[in-house]
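User: Structure with zinc ion, tokens only please.
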Amino acid sequence: MSVGPDELGPSATALLGDGAYPESQVSYEGATYWLERPTDGVKRLVVVADDESAFRGFAGTAERIDGKVRFVAETTPENAVALRSALPWLRPARFGLHTSAGFGDRLGLATPGHVRALKAVSAAINPVFAQQSIREMGRCHRTPRNVLDDATWGAFQAGWTKPVGGDADHLEELDDIDNTVAAGFVFYTLDPKAEVDPEAEHADPAAIQQKVEALDWAGLESDLATFTKRYVGQRIDLEREAIELDEQSVFRAMAKYGPSLAHAMAMYRRLMEKSIDCEVEFAVDETDYPTKPAEHVVVVSELQRLGMDFVSFAPRFVGRFEKGVEFIGEIDRLRRDFEIHAEIAQALGPYKLSLHSGSDKYSTYPLIAEATNGLVHLKTAGTSWAEALRVIAHNDPDLMREVLGLALDSFEANRKSYHLSCDPSRIPTDPTDEEVAQLMDRVDSRQVLHVGYGAILEEFGPQLYQVWNDNEEEHYRIIADHFVKHLTPFARLAH
Ligand SMILES: [Zn+2]
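Assistant:
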């Protein structure tokens, strides 16, 4: 889909009053739209058109001025729906195999910064501004609709007029499908990690045999003999090498991932029942052990046999992808891992490789962009939150000290389900202003604050939002600079 705006008329800028975001101004089908922030600080939508038919679906107040109608509306959920309906590029769309990047935004404030980064890099990278996992929504007290609406307003404010995605991230339960479909997402990340069996990694052959025999083969629409015949002894020829599927690795793969395939298919079928226009990612990136080449082959082939159509796959790559910090591990091994997974994705698909926990892993971007030749999705989430804390540290060091204190006190609870290597004992408990300014640059404090968002927002939410709203220009600049560094390595190969 590519529906762009109309040319702005010569008189359009004269319409803008004080407090307007000039880059938001856009004309479409006879109406001119923009966002403004008057002195009261509450953002509102303004639309000017020849007659009132342009405001259908919006709730607000209209007045006639100079033969035109000027309409003012609040940024409510209802008006977000009306705006997506009026300006079609704001409706989440599928990206298929095109290069894409996810910009998870826990606060609902960062999208204008993301847009600036994309405009600065000016490459064929398709953005997913609306992206949040159910786990994160719970900790942030947000609903799928909040996530989508905030991204809509942010993209509109910053003048994004190309397609946007919408990622219902890390869905683990059947109910998650219902809730995110109702909100209007188009990209569904199915994550059956709870059903992946980590014991299969090191279990002895007899235990593996037992696990494989005990699988719900009826649910998998197969049986062990057929499965064995399908894979054992097969050879997958890749560009540079071949993957030999011996019984050991095939059985181990199925013992490990078999239960998760049935669960993923249940989620997938629930999604297909909705008959909506959407696409799917299959993700096992948050499991304990790297996804081996043979496992990738078996998992994907089984999903395909069961009828799952997906545009991207997120394996667990070698090394450590921790929250908010550089890749930890041997970079040459990772390069090889990217290459082999990319070759499998090419041979069995093509589908995109998806890099999760992808923020701040600068050394990895050129490698995965190259290995996949741009057939890649980069997923970032918490880094926008971490960067937003720079605004707090800079403008209100006392508040930042309180935030840090709470993050340290609640760390043991916050760290659950995250991969981290920080040592809280290395963080100053009563930092000077200079130390406060460096908290987001040090691994220990960055990670502790990174995962502390739930507790921090719970306790200090209104104060923090006040600082962000008072300093939004600085916030957008920080986010934009941060993401230019993420996107640039993908620019050349993006398509
Ligand atoms: Zn992930």
